[in-house]
């Protein structure tokens, strides 16, 4: 039975769609401006102000960055931090969450409380820096990887996901002679791909966007990741701080906009491959507490 839509409901629908179009335009216009400005010459950027289509298209910004040793080095550092950091994050989180999901583990509640406690209280920036310095990890990528090796929230959700695995499946694997490692590798992990893919994406975004910790722990400018290099371009712009990477380079507007796009490009490429697991992983991880 088809229901007749009243005029008032149609007006409400029109208002809702209009608001959605305005919000979408407010999001897409700045992004489109960054894309088009990255292809515009400097004189057009300075004289026209806001524009969506440049009169003259140029690749100078991208050519400069892709042949710039400082940008290439920062890009490599970002890849190293993101790839190895995410691998460390997901391995340690998976192992600890699987262990805490076992009811026979002694002091499991105490360990879970300690994990939850770190979500509410932290040691602070200065004590953490003193620990990193005392361990001799300054100017090392390990200072970034170890200080954020396990996110408590991700650990708790993944532990809940492992609890949702049917007990019959685990019992049948034990009856077949599988130990804990074999059960984890051959049974639990294949069933946990949605959760693992979801938190891999979370950790990857966190590592790729590493900024404050890199400034705090990495004094060697050659090890700074891409976000720090981008900050040098956008804020300092040929100041003495930017000269620590390069000798007083005046970055053109096209180079700045190109750097923004190149910084976001890897995540835009990876996200569609993990998106299908995203909602499923989060929902499955919240079935059992």
TrEMBL record:
<dbReference type="InterPro" id="IPR000515">
    <property type="entry name" value="MetI-like"/>
</dbReference>
<comment type="similarity">
    <text>Belongs to the binding-protein-dependent transport system permease family.</text>
</comment>
<protein>
    <submittedName>
        <fullName>Aldouronate transport system permease protein</fullName>
    </submittedName>
</protein>
<feature type="transmembrane region" description="Helical">
    <location>
        <begin position="12"/>
        <end position="35"/>
    </location>
</feature>
<keyword id="KW-1133">Transmembrane helix</keyword>
<keyword id="KW-0813">Transport</keyword>
<feature type="domain" description="ABC transmembrane type-1">
    <location>
        <begin position="75"/>
        <end position="273"/>
    </location>
</feature>
<keyword id="KW-1003">Cell membrane</keyword>
<feature type="transmembrane region" description="Helical">
    <location>
        <begin position="183"/>
        <end position="205"/>
    </location>
</feature>
<keyword id="KW-0812">Transmembrane</keyword>
<dbReference type="InterPro" id="IPR035906">
    <property type="entry name" value="MetI-like_sf"/>
</dbReference>
<feature type="transmembrane region" description="Helical">
    <location>
        <begin position="110"/>
        <end position="130"/>
    </location>
</feature>
<feature type="transmembrane region" description="Helical">
    <location>
        <begin position="78"/>
        <end position="98"/>
    </location>
</feature>
<keyword id="KW-0472">Membrane</keyword>
<dbReference type="Pfam" id="PF00528">
    <property type="entry name" value="BPD_transp_1"/>
</dbReference>
<feature type="transmembrane region" description="Helical">
    <location>
        <begin position="142"/>
        <end position="162"/>
    </location>
</feature>
<feature type="transmembrane region" description="Helical">
    <location>
        <begin position="254"/>
        <end position="274"/>
    </location>
</feature>
């Amino acid at each position: 039975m088809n229901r007749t839509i009243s005029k008032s409901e149609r007006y409400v629908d029109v208002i809702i769609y209009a608001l959605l179009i305005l919000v979408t335009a407010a999001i897409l216009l700045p992004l489109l401006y960054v894309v088009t400005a990255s292809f515009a010459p400097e004189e057009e950027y300075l004289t026209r102000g806001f524009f969506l289509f440049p009169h003259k298209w140029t690749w100078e910004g991208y050519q400069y960055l892709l042949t710039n040793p400082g940008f290439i080095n920062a890009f490599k550092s970002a890849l190293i931090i993101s790839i190895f950091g995410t691998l460390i994050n997901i391995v340690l989180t998976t192992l600890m969450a699987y262990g805490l999901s076992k009811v026979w583990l002694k002091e499991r509640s105490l360990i879970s409380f300690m994990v939850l406690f770190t979500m509410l209280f932290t040691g602070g920036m200065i004590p953490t820096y003193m620990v990193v310095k005392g361990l001799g990890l300054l100017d090392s990528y390990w200072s970034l990887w170890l200080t954020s090796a396990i996110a408590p929230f991700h650990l708790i959700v993944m532990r809940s996901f492992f609890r949702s695995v049917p007990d019959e499946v685990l019992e049948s694997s034990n009856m077949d002679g599988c130990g804990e490692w074999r059960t984890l590798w051959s049974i639990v992990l294949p069933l946990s791909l949605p959760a693992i893919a979801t938190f891999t994406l979370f950790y990857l975004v966190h590592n790729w966007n590493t900024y404050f910790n890199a400034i705090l722990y990495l004094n060697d400018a050659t090890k700074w990741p891409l976000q720090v290099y981008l900050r040098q371009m956008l804020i300092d712009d040929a100041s003495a701080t930017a000269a620590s990477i390069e000798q007083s380079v005046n970055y053109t507007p096209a180079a700045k906009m190109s750097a923004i796009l190149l910084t976001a490009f890897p995540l835009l490429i990876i996200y569609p491959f993990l998106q299908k697991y995203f909602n499923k992983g989060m929902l499955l991880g919240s079935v059992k507490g």
